[in-house]
Amino acid sequence: MMNNSAVEVTDLRVRRGTVEVFDGVDLAIPRGQITGLLGPSGCGKTTLMRALVGVQRIAGGTVIVLGEPAGSRQLRRRVAYGTQGAAVYGDLTVRQNLSYLASVLGAPKSDVDRVLDEVGLRDQAGQLADSVSGGQVTRVSLAMALVGSPELIVLDEPTVGLDPVLRVELWTLFRGLAERGVTMIVSSHVMDEAQRCDRLLLMRSGRIIADTTPAALLADTNTTDAEAAFLALIERDTRARAEGTSDGVRRRTRRDRREGSR
């Protein structure tokens, strides 16, 4: 594993029934940065994130996280995963939710007050999780991910449906975590959030069509905003696939080599 990589994925293959979701994905995610996983709904973002945290059944390849195979027991306290839905118990208070998770993880009790302050929920600590607003539920889910001071936090579309002010507040929190050395992987289908990331993985139809930075993305596509840049990449990718030189064709060639060696 590369010293500066939090995650290394090699030849990842995932099948769902007869559908091949991934056929040979390779990527590396640097430590201590915000990596944005962006692309339209259904492109494979959630499946990839599930593979990174070790809850996705894979057909082949390797996923190494913080030097260990994804899903290893050793990663239990080092990796946190925030799903799209709110992962909280509605009949418990905000504080009780956090206290319960802290006890499961063996985290210090002081973590509860720490994360309440970090996500701005100190005043709502005694409220039932079902009674807080939608934006506050998102904060509770994020607070759950922060318990135990994980080294890697994987968040699946944490800002979906939130108002612009709350989105900015959450991204400010993400930046603060990254500056403390936490590796953040944040998925989104809102392209303007690309500008808030250090690194970008842009996905389409189960493939990574770009592994870049926000500045390099705009320069490479000669555009001024991330949405226009992504559309330009899609056009380029479509043209390349039609000409038989795309990543998809190379992956089929690699799969043919694997099958030919059996």
How is this structure best described in words?
The protein is of the alpha/beta class. The protein has a single domain (5-78, 150-260), classed as P-loop containing nucleotide triphosphate hydrolases (Rossmann fold, 3-Layer(aba) Sandwich). It is built from 8 helices and 10 strands. A 6-stranded mixed beta sheet has the order 6-7-8-3-9-10, with helices on both faces. A 4-stranded antiparallel beta sheet has the order 2-1-4-5, sandwiched between helices. Helix 2 crosses helix 3 (110-118) and helix 3 (110-118) crosses helix 4 (134-146).
Give the radius of gyration: 19 Å
Q: Which CATH architecture is right?
A: 3-Layer(aba) Sandwich
Give the strand order of the largest sheet, numbering strands 1, 2, ... along the chain.
Answer: 6-7-8-3-9-10
Averaged pLDDT: 88
Structural class: alpha/beta
Shape: globular
**Unreliable runs:** 246-257
CATH homologous superfamily assignment: P-loop containing nucleotide triphosphate hydrolases
Distance between the termini: 28 Å
Could you please say which CATH topology applies here?
A: Rossmann fold
Kindly estimate the percentage of residues that lie in beta strands according to DSSP. Answer: 15-25%
Structure summary, number of beta strands: 10
The overall number of domains is 1
User: What share of residues is helical?
Assistant: 25-40%
State the order of secondary-structure elements, H for helix, E for strand.
EEEHEEEHHHEHEEEHHH
Which CATH class?
A: Alpha Beta
Number of helices: 8
Reported for the largest beta sheet, the result is:
6 strands, mixed
